[in-house]
Design a protein that fits this description.
Four copies of one chain form a homotetramer. The first copy, chain A, has about 150 residues and is α+β, with helices and mostly antiparallel strands. Chain A has a single domain, classed as Hotdog Thioesterase (Thiol Ester Dehydrase, Chain A, Roll). Chain A has four helices and six strands. Chain A has a six-stranded antiparallel sheet with strand order 1-2-4-5-6-3. In chain A, strand 1 and strand 2 form a beta hairpin. Chain A is elongated and about 45 Å long. At the A-B interface, helix 3, helix 4 and strand 3 of A face helix 3, helix 4 and strand 3 of B.
Chain lengths: ~150, ~150, ~150, ~150
């Protein structure tokens, strides 16, 4: 995808970073926005005991939270500056336990569109050896919303 | 579904409650396990600013976290006492913004099975008027795991 | 859902039936439109060897084809008369083998909306004893399209 | 993925082709099995009026039928010779109308596994100019079944 040409607003990175700062859920799970390019966003976080399920692995919902933000912001990079992004739906496949020292979540636009944008995401776990392991994938459908209730970002 | 007859272990409620206690992610999002019946589980939580996205609504991932636990434990009520439950995949549709004072997440088994269990979930928001609003639905595929690495619950 | 009040056009049944007639895929799989009510549609078909997979059961894709039409037309019952319905995405869970003499596919609107409509579907198989068995479920996201390329229905 | 090493049976291509031949649904939609490699399968078909929806495009369910077979057989290439493949669930995103002269459906294993295999699929349309257009994506969860009711393939 020639994503560069799809960017509707050159300040996409500033907009994404400002919106991410306004997501308290990202602070709560200790997630950082590490990469913002046209149509692709990466979020990283450290493992934390506070975010685990009963077997001591990262909870599937926490993995989904970070991937949803990554996919949503990937879509948002391509939107005009007066738009807001909403998640309509997503599907997650959990491929391996969420164990590791650090995690990287990537969202990338598969199909841009004026109203509907489809993005795919991957979640990777990094162990002590630094090797990346694919632990989950997501497909999400995002919607561009303009002029609704002053909702922005 | 005649779920009563499907229960493989009469102590299902104790097992579910013990496992829920071992999910730190539930404490982190302030979720409580309020109902455990054969094939159905309910989880409730209060709204918290710490769990919101950029528009001030509950993050879709937090909604998914609670629904995944509800669906997973609904499946777990039907499993034998030496089993553990794993989420293979789920899909979430976000139907309305996650705004409200309290939230209820229900998971119920649609299709029991020895290895694969399919559960459906609903998320409801309650405003100041106390009326329930359906804000999200989930379909999840859960797996019964027995004898893997001492994983239980 | 008070679907009655949601109907935007009283001729919804005629519109749905006319559109169904223009779906050759329904003829190819031998499907009939048996029920059209506000927000809910049923489609029925007989088992046919031509539509099976390698184990002699109805192919998962054929089940999906009929459920997608049922969910799409359920959404379409609530749309204005100048609209067309498009499927954005759907998820199917196959719960039991597609074996039986006849099949019924029901689609019903879970969340109406101006642009996005979410519908849920069920597929039932009927054996010689006439008992219904749930063999699959669907959640689909449908879109109302108005004024695109003369697309209608 | 080092899929070569994952092959449990060197006759995987023969097994896949034999099973495909036993899928009458593939004949009904005019689909051919054009490529079978370890962990990846391609299916092709010509456009046919018989398989369209109300706007004259390939029905989303027909696209799903071919992608489900591609994903299922991709999983099947990695299974032992006494196994059968079952689809547990799949999700499809429709990205563009199903219009074209020919279609190619690719399924590839994202996550191999002893019991559960996750595969991702793409559907491409080819117009008169021969250029490929991505029209749909799938994520499917497949299951290895051994020794059930003489089910094979």
């Amino acid at each position: 995808m020639a994503a560069e040409r799809l960017v509707a607003d050159d300040d996409f990175e500033d907009r994404v970073r400002a919106s991410f700062e306004r997501q308290p859920a990202m602070t709560t799970i200790g997630a950082e926005l590490t990469r913002v390019t046209p149509g692709m966003v990466e979020i990283e976080m450290a493992f934390s005991d506070r975010l685990t399920q009963q077997h001591g692995f990262l909870h599937a919902g926490v993995i989904s939270t970070a991937m949803d933000s990554a996919c949503g912001y990937a879509a948002y990079t391509l939107m005009p500056d007066n738009a807001a992004v909403l998640t309509i739906e997503f599907k997650v496949n959990l491929l391996a336990p969420g164990k590791g020292e650090r995690f990287l979540f990537r969202g990338a636009v598969t199909k841009p569109g004026r109203t509907i944008i489809v993005a795919d995401g991957q979640a990777y776990a990094f162990g002590a050896d630094g090797e990346a392991k694919l632990i989950a994938t997501m497909t999400g459908t995002m919607m561009t919303v303009i002029g609704r209730d002053g909702i922005l970002g």
